[in-house]
Amino acid sequence: MVEEHEDQIENKKIILKGYLTTGLLLKETSMELKIDKFDFSVVSKGSGGVVVKNLYLSCDPYMRGRMRDFQGSYIPPFVPGSVIEGFGVSKVVNSDSPNFKIGDLVTGITGWEEYSLIKKPEQLRKIETDDIPLSYYVGLLGMPGFTAYAGFYEVCSPKKGEFVFVSAASGAVGQLVGQLAKLHGCYVVGSAGTSEKIDLLKNKLGFDEAFNYKEEPNLDEALKRYFPQGIDIYFDNVGGMMLDAALVNMRVHGRIAVCGMVSLQSLSYTDGIQNLYMLILKRITMTGFLQSDFLHLHPQFLEFIISNYKQGKIVYIEDMNEGLENAPAAFVGLFTGKNVGKQVICVARD
Amino acid sequence: MVEEHEDQIENKKIILKGYLTTGLLLKETSMELKIDKFDFSVVSKGSGGVVVKNLYLSCDPYMRGRMRDFQGSYIPPFVPGSVIEGFGVSKVVNSDSPNFKIGDLVTGITGWEEYSLIKKPEQLRKIETDDIPLSYYVGLLGMPGFTAYAGFYEVCSPKKGEFVFVSAASGAVGQLVGQLAKLHGCYVVGSAGTSEKIDLLKNKLGFDEAFNYKEEPNLDEALKRYFPQGIDIYFDNVGGMMLDAALVNMRVHGRIAVCGMVSLQSLSYTDGIQNLYMLILKRITMTGFLQSDFLHLHPQFLEFIISNYKQGKIVYIEDMNEGLENAPAAFVGLFTGKNVGKQVICVARD
Q1: Per the database record, which ranges form the Enoyl reductase (ER) domain (chains A, B) (predicted)?
Q2: How do residues B257-272 score in pLDDT, each as one tens digit?
């Protein structure tokens, strides 16, 4: 069902200018807005591809890893001069795939541009329209939400009544981890970097306590204040100094889920972790994980989160920036803590 | 069945002079030989205690932790001016316990002295004499052997054909880990610090390969040479630079058993661990453990090891120093890699 479009249209896109090198910090100028022509008929008969109009694009910290020329990761680097890729919510506007028709709403990996050709639409997931905001499909119901779900239930082995600490707690992943932990009957404290975020954690996201790590001269003392009895589970989104402080405050048989190391990615902390000997003293398990290893749980994740969201037991905070041209600034802001909640770019409403 | 001994006899003992402080390295002079009087009748009727003559004493790295004034560990610090305690093999020479009679051979925590009063003999285990050297009850069949057994089978989740790296591989724990891994069908490489140890690893202990880390200018390159396909299991006895190098050479879903951090205890490495981000990239699990959490497996450990030892499938290398007066030097030697194999002090043969 490929339609014919004679006219080429303009297609704004964000490209990566060149690889980041060691010591070269990510800046808005690492990326560039370009305008190309896009031909809807790029989906030729037999190609099996689809053309999508991108509605919402996701800014996720892992993407910075793709801006380096490092082949050893779980995902290949971006190609300099080419469009940046990431998770998005899109609308099918042309299709040669039997599984997608024009008008379908989909989520999956797309380009940071107005229109994208998806050559392998099998990686797209169709969105059944319901009462849930579309943009949540790159947040609460997307990769970050699933990261929180798999990380908390599968990696942290939580038990009711346990003491849970979440760093970057108002972020795309952390805010859901905290809520899942509360639903599970845990005591939950989060850290974040502004008073606005602390207020959200305590008054909107249901954390028992929250603190602004930037106002704590000594993170070890801060954790001792909030966890006089110690930490059973540390859901680590930042690495660095906070990880070192958490290590000395863990309880026996504590678990650390290593989800992200934003502090390391921004190169602001290169001292290394000093307190790993605590792993032995307290018999701690520390596990790095990726949500992609748990995809068999994805259906139950969607069911659980959608059900709890509709019952009002889970909320989700987004930081929505309007316009593709603002995507580079929004992305850079992730690493300075500028975003409040899950960072999303709205390219078009429909 | 307390016997009367009118005479007090001399009792040589090694005492801790004072706590080690940060930056104060362990030296022989941190300890001191003293001669006390010992009265066999110290075991009074109704006390339930036993008096033992100590035959073999064990030098174990964890003991250094007890020489610091740090209360937060899994075992309390020694008392300055008092005798050093550790695992030993001893002979009961007086008893008020219904479970032990004179002449029984026992193993458990005793003092670094010729004769000890054991107030709580329930912590002692009786040794059934067989063809196994008595001193092995503080090594192969003692805490280090059980550490290797529990650490390898329970913490590393080994699978046949996996690639296993062991540091401090000729030590009390490492040498058994390597042999267990070989029995399990793994490929095993060990690191150690002298050519004599490398020779033992390759020609006596059955490691597939071994290398002298002191002769490697770049540990990362050394590991890439021995594990071109990467490491599935790293049994870490040292921490520090070797851990950092192993982290970047782990395979996806690799496991690191954190058993000891001798490098940290000797304060020779304070740079901190840089490469923990590999935990995420490779989805690695890193687990600190203590053998004491696995005591339910102790009977099957003894049965398995004794059986394999008697069949000649497991060997064990000891470094035996004669005389209690040489205990401080032997203990200090653990932290400079002087010992070849499990370090034991022979106080008396029987």
Answers
A1: 49-345
A2: 999 876 555 444 567 8
